[in-house]
Sequence to fold (130 residues):
Amino acid sequence: MDEATNKNISRAVSKAARWQIIVTVVISVASLLLAGLDAALSAIAGGASVIVGSYAGVVATRGRYSSSPSGVLITLLKAEVIKVMVTAALLLMAFKFYRGIVPLSLIGGLAAAALVSGIGLRAINDDNNK
Fold:
């Protein structure tokens, strides 16, 4: 993989993470205004678990390049498995240790961060194709 591709991937991940953080903050502020502090903290827990899981997937597969399509697919699948496992572990910890959790806010923060990640990566891909 050449340096330009690495730079594009790094830029895409950074922009997607930035959008995930922004949407998590927006959901947590809305939850704070509508349902209180526990709802805001729940939204932050949901969004943060996705952000940390995504970052763990990127870090775990950083530096592993393959020129074959099957090698690229295996690397992507490993990153996704790590992302899902870290996200699930963080959500389990939130359910276990935070007694005031508001499930709707947690799911809202989680879903928004997960959806924005995909949308952010897709939009960046469109920018790179111009």
